[in-house]
User: Fold this.
Amino acid sequence: MQSHWAPPGLDSTMNPVYPLGLVYLGTAISGRHTVRILDLCMAENPWKDLSDTVREYEPGVVGISIRNADSFGYSDIAPSDCSPTSFCLNNLGRTLEVISETGFSGKIVVGGQAFSMFPDQIMEHSDLVDFGVFLEGEHTFSELLDNLDEPSSVKGLYYRSGGEVHFTGRRTPADLAETRPPDRSLLPSGSYVSSPEGIGIQSKRGCILSCSYCIYPYLSGSQLRLREPVEVVEEMQDLARQNIECVHFVDPVFNIPQGHAEAICRELIERKVSIKWIAWFHPRFLNREFIRLCEDAGCVKFELSPDAYGQAGLDAMKKQLTTAEIRESLKLARNLKSSTITYNFLINHPGETVFSFIRKLLFCIRIKLVLHRRARIELLNHIRIFPGTEVHKQAIQEGIIQSSTNMLPVCLKNMKPLFYKKSKSVNAMYTILMQILKFKNAITHGI
Ligand code: B12
Ligand code: SF4
Assistant:
């Protein structure tokens, strides 16, 4: 089950996304077990739906996917203390309560990215959680179902024994060739088609880069595990047959390795698959021919995350990117036929100075002047500090947080200090910028 995580419609970050991880998980156990997937993010009345489903279906095991730590964006701008932010621990508490009230007597298993980022805290939160699956779930969950009475033999698992939580140790990430492609009939994509984020599809797991703030290599490994391009395209072809218009590659970076991305594009073109797609790209590996190939294969949005503009910031965050390469990406983007490009930049990151902040703003203006509506810029994001990243260690050394700081808060007050904001001068400039934007907004909306 995908845990309910936010009041629907109250926050722009809440566009529902197809729970691909759950579908992979269901696929891994289907055939040997009866599977039913419930996405509480799509429910009008989530707690009632949960209660009704458990009563009706009487499962032996309930699996809860905890994807997001909270519903907050990466910026600390908008929310006031009464904004509708929700926190995964609060939602988990309510979820467990509702399940208990049905008289459920089976086992409860949690997993998902937020669980893997905060396993100890989540296990300690409530002893109603029997097991926690760390990182990828296909093999661990599957083995657990066969060994519910002997969990210590299952790698990658948190379990309880003698009143304490134990961890069986990390499991080596599986070869994707050993992982069955997602059987989407377990959760038809139909209700998600209106999501602007498209339906998720995965062509690889892992990222070989190690940007200092990023949690992806921790979550999906720092070695690449690739799916066969033909298999990926067959999945896209199936989705196209079901009238899915747009898919979103959930890969950390689509164009590393470039040959794999090219093979997918060529296969899509050869089979004349009519489906639009979105992906994240690394600017270093873009060139004119590759961009054309992607567009011909259906790419409608190129997402770039240069994050910094200026070499000191790029190096401080280990971006493996140069300012010249970012500028080059803009030149290349002039040739986009019909697709759009998104530039994501962070603010007040390691290595940021007032000078780099101003340069970044000017570059963003330049992007808009050159590309107009074909470009979208995400500029107001701060680094959210997550354990398991280099920035977490750096922030402790720099006194931004303490090693004892609780990184999984349950209220906004405790959440606000968890963003990396070192330079006071940049912060002051950022505040001025926010005031200008608010003023501009007020004028535009006549308030
Ligand atoms: C792609 C992606 C997106 C895309 C989704 C596109 C789409 N159409 O699917 C977009 C851009 C829309 C997006 C949005 C957001 N995202 Co996002 N996203 C990702 C990304 C890169 C991949 C997710 C994915 O699909 N993985 C592939 C599937 C197959 O793997 P999986 O979900 O991890 O599932 C496996 C395991 O987790 C486990 N598992 C999962 N559930 C369960 C349940 C049980 C019971 C068990 C046993 C195991 C298990 O088994 C699965 C199979 O191995 C991850 C980063 C990452 N590397 O994981 C961030 C990530 C999941 N996102 C994150 C966040 C925060 C968000 C947003 C809240 C951002 C925002 N403020 O707007 C929104 C929320 C959207 C929503 N409604 O939930 C965080 C979540 C954790 C956290 N920090 O809170 C991550 C980890 C990134 C980060 N920087 O921290 N996201
Ligand atoms: S930010 Fe992107 S390129 Fe850098 S480590 Fe994370 S996923 Fe990889």
In short: The CA atoms of residues 100 and 128 lie 9 Å apart.
